[in-house]
Amino acid sequence: MSGSPAGNNDRLDALEMRVAHQDQMIAELNEVITGQWRKIDALERHIGNLREEFQNLALPRTTPEPPPPHY
Fold first, then answer.
1. Which pTM was predicted?
2. What is the DSSP string of 11-68?
3. pLDDT tens across 21-31, in order?
4. Can you say whether the dihedral through the CA atoms of 35, 36, 37, 38 is positive or negative?
5. 3 closest CA partner among 19, 11, 13, 18
6. Model confidence at 2, in pLDDT bands (50, 70, 90)?
7. Residue 44 lies in a domain
8. 40-68: buried (b, 16+ CB within 10 Å) or exposed (e) per residue?
């Protein structure tokens, strides 16, 4: 790997730019994932509340349901 100093500097600059770009991309992806987890948590809480409300509204059945009229 004996290259010219100018060629090595160019390669080093290219690698540094790639790392900087990847660091920025990782930060952006992390923000997206964090936002999605917040939405998922909110939706799970909402579903839990709806499930609880539905169970509270459901009438308990103490007798079997009568057969339909055409039975």
1. 0.60
2. HHHHHHHHHHHHHHHHHHHHHHHHHHHHHHHHHHHHHHHHHHHHHHHSPPP-SPPPPP
3. 999 999 999 99
4. positive
5. 11
6. low
7. yes
8. eeeeeeeeeeeeeeeeeeeeeeeeeeeee
| Non-local CB neighbours of 11 within 8 Å, separated by 6+ positions | 3
**Residue 1 banded pLDDT, cuts 50, 70, 90:** low
Residue 46, in any domain of the structure: yes
Q: How far apart are CA 71 and CA 63, in angstroms?
A: 18
Residue entry with tokens 């103490």: 62
- 32 domain residue, yes or no: yes
Q: Work out how many domains the chain is built from and give that number.
A: 1
10 lies in a domain?
Answer: no
Domain of residue 48: give its range: 28-55
